[in-house]
Amino acid sequence: MINFVLFLSAFFILGGLAVASNPSPYYGVVGLVVASAAGCGWLVSLGVSFISLVLVMVYLGGMLVVFVYSVSLAADPY
To answer: Where would you find the membrane-spanning parts of this chain (predicted)?
Structure first.
């Protein structure tokens, strides 16, 4: 079990670094999804599955809406 938690924490850190270090929002959102999935798995392994579900619904939902908005603004030439 401890190996699984260490695996999830490594993916959480790598996902956070991917969000912070990518200038392109297309690749940054992949890091966001990886970090959020690892964080949710970490919370499920701790036994707080409801908080994990709230994290998926609120955090990823809100961030992906902001991502779609920023991509649509970047694609607009004016």
So the answer is: 30-48, 53-75
